[in-house]
Amino acid sequence: MYIVSACLFGENVKYSGGNNYHQGVIDFLKDKDILPVCPEVAGNLPVPRYPCERLGDKVINNQGEDVTEAFHEGARRCWETILNEWSQKDIEGAILKARSPSCGAGVIYDGTFQGVKIPGDGVFTELLKSKGIKVMTELDFDIDEV
Ligand code: SF4
Question: Which of 80, 94, 95, 133 has CB 3.0 to 4.6 Å from 3, enough for a Cys bridge?
């Protein structure tokens, strides 16, 4: 059983209103039980929405507004949804969207909105890792792109 970022699965939930459909992820998951989630939508943020980045302990949007609580609430709600569906021991891992302030794993943007990457995890990824869930990103499933 795998948790997956809904945008990687083709749902139009990303900040721009589009998605991040990823064929390599879809191929890997085709014979597996999956649960697509979007922690930002679960936190009642709209689609589309202003782009957000983590800045220290906070999450801000590019208008300078503090959206930290919505990100944490969304992550908590997704985890509740997951546990309503599955037993934690059955979760094999999560495949989440790289560099997102919610879903990024290992590398995120630095909060300056200048495209600067730093080591770090998104808010949802942090929660999953704290529960012992292995988190991958679509970059682990890249296939040759045209
Ligand atoms: S919060 Fe995660 S699932 Fe939702 S749009 Fe951003 S990267 Fe995709």
Answer: 94
